Amino acid sequence: MKFLFDQNLSPKLVNLLTAEYPGSIHVRTLGMRASPDPVIWAYAAANDFAIVSKDADFQQRALSLGQPPKVIWILLGNCPTSTVASLLRARHADISAFEADPTASLLALS
Question: Is the model's pTM score more than 0.85?
Answer without folding.
Answer: yes
